[in-house]
Specification:
CATH class of the largest domain: Alpha Beta
Largest sheet: 5 strands, antiparallel
CATH architecture of the largest domain: Roll
CATH topology of the largest domain: Chitinase A, domain 3
Helix content: 10-25%
Structural class: alpha+beta
Oligomer: single chain
Number of domains: 3
Distance between the termini: 37 Å
């Protein structure tokens, strides 16, 4: 069976920087042990083909492939993580880091304003920061294997939740709707990705607001049965 656009598949892969062979991402335990990467909860990745859940060139390469076979592809920057952009190298006052109790040092990688950045230099109260993706401008090689086609709707919904929200919420299916049960402060996040859910699964995404669980110390001797979320 060959893979088509919009198929959900389970895939194992390892990504390397082509010129050095350095592994920068993997969900294969044997390869993870060869690196210093802090990769937790390794498991095959479930994705929808053609919806940019992988770098563009990798995503396109999946179409037409066979389940159970091993594949290898080399990607240039345009099809992987983009070219380096000099305008994304910026000087930032060091106090911005000190306020967060961070001492910026050359070569350090950290999350800044939700983006992974690299410190190029830091002196005289100023820090030169590179906002380019660390893999920008590099040739990338992926080795991968498609384990299976994913048909169960629950697996598809949970895979999208993990990819978009980095967590799974309880939900209810009603005809053409997926109703996620969330706390009120998360509602804007759901609204942002509702179109993506409908594009991939053909179902509208809605939110049902639930109250936060409250710890009631005074009830420690009671044995009320509460639903688990």
């Amino acid at each position: 069976m060959t893979i088509k656009q919009n198929d959900f598949i389970e895939i194992e892969f390892t990504g390397r920087i082509t010129d050095t062979g350095e592994i920068f991402d993997t969900n294969i335990e044997e390869d993870a042990k060869k690196t210093n990467l802090d990769i937790k909860d390794l498991k095959p990745f479930i994705l929808s083909v053609g919806h940019q859940m992988l770098p563009e060139g990798f995503d396109k390469d999946l179409i037409g492939k066979e389940i159970g076979n091993n594949y290898k592809i080399e990607l240039g920057p345009d099809d992987a993580f983009g070219k380096r952009n000099s305008s994304l190298v910026k000087m930032i006052p060091a106090k911005h880091f000190h306020e967060q109790k961070i001492v910026p040092e050359r070569g350090m990688q950290l999350s800044l304003d939700g983006r992974l950045v690299r410190i190029l230099s830091s002196s005289s109260g100023r820090t030169l920061v590179d906002f380019n993706n660390p893999l920008a401008g590099k040739k990338i090689t992926y080795e991968y294997r498609i384990n299976r086609l994913v048909n169960e709707e629950k697996e598809k919904i949970n895979a999208l939740q993990e990819f978009l929200f980095k967590k799974k919420f309880d939900y209810e299916l009603k005809e053409d709707k997926i109703i996620l049960k969330i706390e009120r402060e998360l509602e804007p996040l759901i609204n942002i990705f509702s179109k993506k859910f409908e594009e991939i699964l053909g179902k509208k995404l809605e939110a049902e607001i639930v109250e936060k669980n409250k710890d009631k110390k005074e009830d420690t001797h009671t044995h009320d049965h509460k639903s688990k979320e």
